[in-house]
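F.,

This is the one I mentioned.
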């Protein structure tokens, strides 16, 4: 299984798969301080909502050897890295509660163990999610996906791509179209690479080709991940997801969202309150051939968009498959 994160307890360090250089080479970055983890999240060495939360948890654990004050500083710094993925803040909240409950003499061990639990729970959640989601697909299915919601965006196995893996493990014939996912090409660089590495039949398309593909009857389902889900089922995911959902609805194609409970933010009644990260202009201003878009041209570069719940056929979680009308509430077995 692909591992985007590996904790070294002896060295108190975190080894991250450097997703900036994929697919050209598989390289790893060692983070030994909370600041290095924070920078790795910000520059997208590590990315994907669950993986960001796990990395931040380990980053907080690194600070324990310097005492409680250093951990508080680390938690505050890590919380400033990226605003949209709620998994980040839930993981940091767990680490903060662990900090408050731990004995001074056991602080480092307690925080490292809590981070490891967050990591292990995510892998288990992805496995359960995959089993539920696999049942939604026919024996032979062509699936369109967007961005990267695979093993390298999580603790392991993946959310959207985890469903594809689980379906194949059940003997189903799964073929995949991957949107290239502009402007950082997570689909072209990461999803296509990850699926091909696992032996899937995967075809890359430009984002603007999805409608034509659907109109030709060549897509059986769309499956995407999520970075934050509101109480009514509105879903924030990588920019371009909303367009796919509208296209899928227009063509009568089921649109599935795969996400663990840690992605739900039930403090928000709907998606209008989800903070949307805006990233640097240069991600769009620098062209493939090294030329630049003229400075006089303005650039708008939101990293995410929000898909209204009415376009979501079902949300797949480790607790089961939920269909509209969505009304998620805090209770036993709910987010």
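My design for it:
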């Amino acid at each position: 299984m692909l591992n985007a994160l590996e904790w070294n307890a002896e060295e108190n360090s975190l080894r991250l798969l450097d997703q900036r250089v994929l697919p050209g080479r598989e390289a790893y970055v060692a983070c030994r301080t909370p600041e290095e983890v924070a920078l790795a999240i910000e520059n997208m060495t590590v990315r994907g909502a669950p993986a960001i939360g796990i990395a931040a948890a380990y980053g907080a654990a690194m600070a324990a050897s310097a005492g409680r004050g250093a951990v508080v500083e680390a938690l505050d710094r890590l919380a400033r890295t990226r605003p949209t993925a709620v998994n980040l803040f839930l993981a940091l909240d767990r680490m903060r509660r662990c900090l408050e409950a731990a004995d001074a003499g056991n602080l480092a061990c307690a925080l490292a163990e809590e981070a490891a639990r967050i990591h292990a729970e995510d892998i288990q959640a992805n496995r359960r999610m995959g089993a539920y989601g696999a049942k939604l697909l026919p024996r032979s299915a062509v699936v369109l996906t967007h961005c990267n919601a695979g093993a390298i965006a999580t603790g392991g196995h993946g959310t959207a791509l985890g469903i594809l893996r689980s379906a194949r493990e059940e003997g189903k014939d799964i073929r995949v179209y991957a949107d290239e996912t502009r402007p950082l090409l997570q689909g072209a660089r990461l999803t296509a690479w990850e699926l091909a590495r696992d032996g899937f039949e995967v075809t890359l398309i430009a984002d603007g080709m999805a409608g034509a593909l659907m109109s030709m009857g060549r897509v059986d389902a769309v499956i995407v991940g999520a970075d934050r889900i509101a109480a009514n089922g509105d879903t924030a995911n990588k920019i371009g997801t909303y367009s796919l959902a509208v296209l899928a609805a227009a063509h009568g194609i089921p649109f599935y969202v795969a996400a663990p409970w840690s992605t739900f933010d039930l403090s928000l009644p709907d998606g209008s309150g989800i903070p949307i990260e805006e990233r640097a202009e240069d991600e769009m201003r620098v062209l493939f051939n090294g030329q630049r878009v003229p400075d006089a041209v303005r650039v708008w570069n939101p990293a995410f968009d929000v898909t209204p719940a009415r376009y979501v056929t079902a949300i797949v979680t480790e607790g089961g498959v939920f269909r509209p009308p969505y009304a998620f509430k805090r209770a036993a077995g709910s987010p």
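The chain has ten helices and 14 strands.

Talk soon.
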